[in-house]
User: Fold these one by one.
Assistant:
Number 1:
Amino acid sequence: MDATPAPPPDIRTRKKPSYAIGAELRDYLGKFRRERELPVTYERLRHFHESHPLMDAEGRNTLWETVAYRAEDIPALNEDLKRIYALLRVDGDFSVMQHLYIDRIDFCSFGNSTPFRIRIVNAYNDNPDYFYIKRADASRACGLELEHLLSPNRLNFLTHGGTLVEEHIAGIPGDIFIDRWLNRPELRPIRIAKELVKFNERSFVQLLGDMRSYNFVVVITPDFEGSQVRIRAMDFDQQSHNGRKSFYLPQFFKENRPLVEFCMKHLHLKTAFQYQREEQTLILARADLAAARLNALLAAMAATPLAPPENVHSLRQGLAAHFQSDRYLRCETMAALVRENLELLRTNIHRGLGALQADQILSTLPRA
């Protein structure tokens, strides 16, 4: 970790341009069964008839709108949405989905992906689930796939033409966790701190940017001695796009500052280095297990525009200075920078070095 300042606070208002899924990436997605024929497209959902704001249980605006379609269109649309859910969950076996029904369709005009969120309910037990239909974007597809291969989390998503379907990632939104859960006595502070170090490392190695509190969730799993905590990314719009190195380090966003300062109170220097090394080792183990697929993904990413050349050049300069390695200066694509992150990580671990020296980890965390 380092002391580079965070990006300007108004970055949330600037939308990243959408990048088309090119032929190479489309071939990769097809090979690994991510590209499937879908009965509902994003554009079809755009033709809703009316909408009204969706409020939370306390009457606050959620930034989502519940949309309605013409009565004559609803039966066919609902059946086709159930078929998409079957593709996502049971490889298209629609016979086991007959007892499900579409309860609500929500639309969010905020952010890059302007998604639709589908609420689907089991008629026998009223158990709901959700999935999302978004505009297909190469950055998002690459981010989802890198997360699937290099993180401890498995992700289901599908693409078809200009449409992307994602499963719901369950958890407590990071901003709500910071506000309502951070100081709960049943959660051990060191476990929260440990996961922040690991999440920070994963984001940086994968070059997954903009991990502010509202772009990740916190998953709490009861254990025989306390509860375990995991932080999961849920927004992949900013995969390998920005030219700022600090954009890929969650610790530097002001929205995450309360979480960072909380963890600093409970994390010893050597323990932080231990957790960082643990996650580095796990990342490399996952990369080795999925070596052929990861190489194919990085090759497809290299052939797919994800950022303007000036962003690549700016980021490679920042990474070269950060790691004190001129090897980054040879990289011409974001995919090459991700590959170099992994290769340098492997070299450093084999030589007994970390991505950062131990005395840099806590001493350079942002402070109030």
Number 2:
Amino acid sequence: MDAEYDVVVVGAGPGGSTAARYAAMGGAKTLLIEKRQEIGTHVRCGEGLARGLLDQAKIPIDKVWISAEMDGARIISPGGFSFDVDEAKAGNEVGYVIERDLFDRALAKLAGEAGADIEVKTSATEIIKENGKIVGLKLICKGEPVTVKTKIIIGADGYESQVGRWAGIDTTIQPSDIMTCVQYRLTNIELDPKYTEFYAGSIAPGGYIWVFPKNDNTANVGIGLGAHIVKHGGEPKEYLDRWIANNPKMRNAKQLDMVAGGCSINAPLDSVVCDQVMLVGDAARMIDPMTGGGIAHACLSGMEAGKVAADAIKKGDYSKEFFQTYEKAWRGELEEKLFRNWMAKEKAQHLSDETFDKLISLLAKVGLDNISVINILKAIKEYHPELVKEFEDLL
């Protein structure tokens, strides 16, 4: 590892690796660090990925990291009403279920091929400032303290991001904007291998249960509950275990692994940059508030941040003002959708099982040419206007 870089990217998930790749492609001397000893391990993720992302971020498709290709998604109400969303209607929001460890390593490989240096088992411990200006990072690299000078830091260190906090970027969110999650990989279950499934209602207060097929009899089966509803740490697992036990399709299920953690489901932040620092992906709270999906957003924000970082190095301007180019880019791609989905999430958290049944049966009956939160709200307004009064200004 050299002692000086133009750009240091903290975190080698999809956002970090993509940011490092584009920064290096733009000519910036770039270092990508990952605190774990192996990129892609211990990932807390349902592993769903939209097809449209791959072309947009110029990520080459490799069947090595694709477990299954989906035809669509199925939304199921407490009373058993279901609404299928096929890929054509979903506008490329339905695509692959992947192997995140292999996908993450593939993205890191692209970053390395672009010229970025990569160090695993390396964690950032402190931002170094001189006269109020960031001049570097303190790291622990394979057990040894290291100091690296840098002009720009890209924080891609996930939901628990420390880079943002150290830099003074306000990433605080309310408990109602946090989802606490547990996921199993289950095998020997009955499922439709071409559809992801989402179950809503009192079975998962403030959230939902998901089933993401990996093959004909294996799936990621998880639950997310609103953190403001959870009374104790083991409650999400209790809800999930109870649902699995009552589901005849899973009566012979065998558990292969388990992951747990939290994710943000908030409205877009006011700012994700400051002088010399940009945040991407989960660190920037860019997870979709309705679906919990974050891979696509991480890659897209990482691409934009990497491009802006390379341009900043060329022009010698690492200011918050210069980084507004990044703010405009990611907001242009994501902000409106994230905000609308946050508004819809706020409403959905308080719906009764009876109301969920009404909504899903309505959507199944009327159908939609294109599925989005805004189109769903418009359909609901026509038949149940009392449910969308809060969203009048968005319709």
